[in-house]
């Protein structure tokens, strides 16, 4: 069978996580494009990729006509790069966050519709096996009907660089993962949010790097999120520590351990009798970017729409920008991706 072809745009830090799965899946990399030619060249050499190296995206797409583009540029460039690729007749798989504003994200969705091409965001944490297990337990009724979801994320992260200077570094750069996971694992969509961003005393960040958010989700479920990138000691997992409460039990997923939970085993007593929730075996074989890439390849072969196709992913991005708006206005904000 003919190999699928791609052009990789953006050869910075995260591209190191993309070349191995691209090569493993035998994707024909026709070109690497970066504003910095040396960066693209270095990546090609590092992974033994023989291909065109360029700073000119549009000319490269005309020349190579790849099946899809892998957009690994910085968030501010996602809209221009992805729209150029879609307009050139390519499907796109791009890094999170989809865009640096809702206006840009909406433009990307419209361009995908207009061109009839697929645009999916790689929201890599969706392809962690334990998150798929949680989704099956929670949405499969093993703790009854979900009523509340909590996520705590506390890490003292000394990045240096752009995150130290940007506004809302936590919500914009990290919480998008957790907000998307809340939607994915509980099978819910966002309705409204009340949020407070803040910059803790002693913070080494310029922008607000901590937040407490209360999201109203579909079916009346409340998702409470507390997070900070400026919390020294006793770190949570990067995936966050989660509690899902249903009307018949509770599921916990913490510290990247196998989830565990309890469900009702009877209807009498001050504390009702409980039994352990049965945790099913893992199904996800390809994690992170590899899992996302395989959904793009499956789409190319079968037409099956990836779970993080842009019409879905923009709902997670809308949670990000609504939380920021709520904090700035000091009031509840309704969430709309339209
Ligand atoms: N999924 C994850 O867990 C995860 C982790 C880290 C980063 N990311 C995301 O990956 C993306 C890239 O992050 P990074 O850490 O690799 O950043 P980076 O700054 O290391 O690399 C970005 C590269 O894109 C290039 N670039 C910027 N604008 C361009 C344009 N218009 N055309 C061509 N090249 C351009 C830059 O020259 C640079 O080499 C971001 O959206 C980031 O949020 C995701």
Task: Annotate the secondary structure layout.
Elements: E1 5-9, H1 19-24, E2 28-33, H2 37-46, E3 52-54, H3 57-64, E4 68-71, H4 75-87, E5 91-95, H5 102-115, E6 119-122, H6 129-139, E7 146-154, H7 162-165, H8 169-186, E8 190-198, E9 210-217, E10 222-228, E11 241-246, E12 249-253, E13 260-264, E14 274-276, H9 288-302, H10 310-329, E15 333-334
Parallel strand pairs: 1-2, 1-4, 2-3, 4-5, 5-6, 7-10
Antiparallel strand pairs: 7-11, 8-9, 8-15, 9-10, 11-12, 12-13, 13-14
Helix pairs in contact: 4-5, 5-10, 6-8, 8-10
Describe the protein in words:
35% of the residues lie in helices and 24% in strands. With 338 residues, the protein is an alpha/beta fold. The chain folds into two domains: 5-122, Rossmann fold, CATH 3.40.50; 128-284 and 318-334, Dihydrodipicolinate Reductase, domain 2 (2-Layer Sandwich), CATH 3.30.360. Strands 14-13-12-11-7-10-9-8-15 form a nine-stranded mixed sheet, covered by helices on one side. A six-stranded parallel sheet has the order 3-2-1-4-5-6, sandwiched between helices. Helix 4 (75-87) packs parallel to helix 5 (102-115), helix 5 (102-115) runs antiparallel to helix 10 and helix 6 (129-139) packs across helix 8 (169-186). The longest helix has 20 residues, at 310-329. It binds nicotinamide-adenine-dinucleotide. Residues 9-14, 33-36, 39, 57, 72-75, 77, 81, 95-96, 124, 173 line the site of nicotinamide-adenine-dinucleotide.
């Amino acid at each position: 069978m003919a190999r699928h072809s791609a052009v990789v745009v953006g050869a910075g830090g995260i591209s190191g996580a993309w070349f191995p799965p691209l090569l493993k899946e035998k994707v024909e990399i026709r070109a690497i494009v970066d504003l910095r030619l040396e960066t693209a060249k270095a990546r090609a050499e590092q992974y033994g990729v023989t291909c065109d190296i360029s700073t000119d995206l549009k000319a490269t797409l005309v020349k190579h006509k790849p099946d899809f583009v892998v957009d690994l540029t910085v968030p501010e460039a996602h809209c221009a790069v992805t729209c150029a690729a879609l307009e050139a007749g390519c499907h796109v798989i791009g890094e999170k966050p989809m865009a640096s504003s809702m206006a840009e994200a909406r433009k990307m969705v419209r361009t995908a519709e207009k061109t009839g091409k697929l645009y999916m965001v790689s929201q890599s944490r969706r392809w962690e096996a334990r998150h798929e297990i949680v989704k099956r337990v929670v949405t499969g009724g093993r703790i009854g009907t979900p009523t509340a979801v909590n996520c705590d994320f506390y890490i003292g992260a000394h990045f240096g660089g752009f995150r130290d200077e940007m506004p809302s570094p936590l919500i914009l750069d990290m919480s998008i993962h957790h907000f998307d996971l809340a939607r994915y694992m509980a099978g819910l969509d966002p309705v409204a949010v009340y949020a407070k961003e803040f910059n803790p005393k002693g913070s080494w960040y310029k922008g607000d790097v901590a937040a407490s958010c209360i999201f109203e989700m579909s079916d009346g479920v409340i998702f409470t999120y507390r997070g900070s990138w400026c919390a020294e000691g006793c770190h949570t997992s990067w995936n966050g520590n989660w509690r899902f409460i249903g009307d018949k039990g509770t599921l916990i997923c913490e510290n990247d351990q196998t989830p565990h939970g309890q469900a009702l085993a009877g209807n009498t007593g001050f504390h009702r009798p409980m039994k352990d929730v049965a945790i099913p075996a893992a199904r996800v074989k390809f994690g992170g970017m590899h899992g996302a890439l395989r959904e793009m390849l499956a789409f190319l072969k079968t037409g099956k729409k990836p779970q993080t196709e842009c019409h879905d992913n923009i709902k997670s991005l809308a949670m990000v920008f609504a939380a920021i708006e709520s904090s700035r206005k000091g009031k509840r904000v309704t969430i709309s991706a339209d």
